[in-house]
Amino acid sequence: MRKPLLIFLLILFTVSLGFAQEKQGEFMRLHSERIKVNDSLCYQVRKEYSGIDTTAWEPFCGVLDNFYFRSWYEYTLQVEEYNPHADTICVIKTIAQYPKGQFMKIHRERIMVNDSLCYQVRKGFSRRDKTPWEPFCGKFSNLWCEEGYEYTLQVKEYNPHADTIFVIKTVARDEVPRVFMRVHKEGRNDTIRAIPVKRRKRM
Asked: Are residues 151 and 165 both part of a single domain?
């Protein structure tokens, strides 16, 4: 009785192991931008999942089943089989997605440059960055900018000399810092806006 039971358990273990390996599939990366191939808009893909991989991207003009693609995001996917020549690649799982592009900040005040009202911009997103602001006299695509606010943007490419900068996403909007104080004037209390002043340390 023990021998048939042992054989049955061994067969069950082998089948389950094979099923697990089959479901594991393969890993692939998906570029953040699609390309035109013979009038078709195609994905750019490559095998494996390493972020430092320098393997050339391959065009894939088929369908990614069980997957929703968002522009300007690079994906790591788990697929049943990596085959860029197939009509369909079945996605088992989305492992990770990374927003691509660059970050930049817009100053809350614009300046005049050769009779043109221009933005002040700089690369990066840190508030502590003291890099000088650069003039940008072009326009922003996909952005509505309100005067008096400092913006942090994710853009396709930071280039202050370009005619247009394409905005992927507005990351943050910082209002002009305000400080209010109470004053007594002519028998009534008024509230006025004041500019914050740093206090000097006493020696």
From this structure: yes
Reported as half-sphere exposure (CB side, CA atoms, 13 A), residue 191 has a value of: 3
Residue 171's alpha-carbon distances to 100, 146, 151, in angstroms, are 13, 15, 8
Examine the pLDDT at 150 and tell me if it is beyond 60: yes
What totals of helices (H) and strands (E) does the chain contain, helices first?
1, 16
| 37 and 90 together in one domain | yes
| Rounded percentage of the chain residues whose pLDDT exceeds 90 | 50
The mean pLDDT of the chain is 81
pLDDT tens readout for residues 49-65: 776 777 899 999 999 99
**28 Cβ contact list (under 8 Å, min separation 6):** 45, 46, 47, 48, 49, 76, 77, 79, 82, 89
Nearest to 150 by CA among 121, 117, 112, 129: 121
